[in-house]
Amino acid sequence: MIKFSFVLIVKLLILIYFLILLFLNYKQNRSPKLVRAKAKKLIKKEIERLSIQNKNISWRFTEKNGSWAELKNGRYFINFGKKAVENTIKHELYHIYRGDCDNHGKGIHNWIRIKLILYPFLFEFRAKLYASYGVKF
To answer: Rounded to two decimals, what is the model's pTM?
Structure first.
């Protein structure tokens, strides 16, 4: 009989989590490339689906590779990078819907809690899950 240690079980769970995240990333990036002509229509549709019409949201295309959403001075900004696909709209708007972009406080403890724990293990996971399958949680 194999005796499992707590550390081994945690390592296996982390490995499983990252494999699921890798699959969700693959699934999300299989949608068509995001083009400016369709972006406005898709953004409006997704804003209505998430019922976030009351949020002040602006968006733009950038020359950077990644895409991100942020909150500055009470306004949400979505930056779509060169590699953005149509599901990126769902992903970034879901971050706004869940409040992932909102100010979570200042100081090193909040930075560690948000950037090192919640962002990679919760915020990204649920945004990818929503963008790929439409699952909200």
So the answer is: 0.85
